[in-house]
Design goal:
Largest sheet: 11 strands, antiparallel
Order of helices and strands: HEEEEEEEEEEE
Number of strands: 11
Shape: globular
Strand content: 35-45%
Number of helices: 1
Radius of gyration: 22 Å
CATH architecture of the largest domain: Sandwich
Distance between the termini: 48 Å
Structural class: mainly beta
CATH topology of the largest domain: Immunoglobulin-like
Length: 197
Amino acid sequence: MRAHRNRLRALAAGGAAALIVALAASALAATPSRPVKVKDPRGDVRAGGLDLTRVQLGRSSDGSLRAALTLVASWTAKDLPSGDGPPGALCVRIWTAAKPGQAAPDRLVCVYADAAGRKLRGVVYRQGSDHLERVADASLSRSSDRTVIVKFSQSSIGKPAKLSFQAEADSPGCAGTSCVDTAPDGGGTAVLTLRKS
C-alpha cells in the first residue's frame, strides 16, 4: 500500500513538472519576438526629400506585426501628396517566399495620404504578376512628429516563420531613384524571425 502511494506521489510530481514545462513553453511562445532595428544615414536622399533615419519591425503582444518608420525631420500627411508627379509614401517591402535581390517583394505595407493631405491611410498589398493587389488595411498611429507606427496582421502577409524586409521612403513629385531612401541603405535587407520553422 505504501509503495502504491509512493508511485502515485511520483506520478503527481512528474505531472506537475510536465505542466510547469508546458506552461513555460507556452509563455515563451506568447512572448513577442525581439524587434529588428535598422538605422539609416542622414542626408542620403536629395534635398527636401523624405529621409529615413530608422525602421523597426517586430511582433506586438497581440500577435500583429508592428513597423515604426522614422524620418529625419518632422512630417505630416500634408507632406505626401504631390500636385505634379507621383505622391509620396512610406513603405515596408516584405519578402516571405521570394528572395531579395532575385524577385520583387511578396508584400508591400504602405502609408499614403489622401489627395488633400488631411488623413493618412495604411494598406497591405500582394505583389501580382503585373500589379499590386490590396490584401488588407493597416492601422496607423503616431509616436512622434517624425515617426509613424504601422500595425498589420501576420495573416495579411501569409503567416511566415521568417521574413526579409526593407523600408522605403518615396518623396512626392519625383519618380527617380534619387528620390527614394531605403533602410537598410544600398538595397540591403534585414531579417525578422517570428517562430522556429
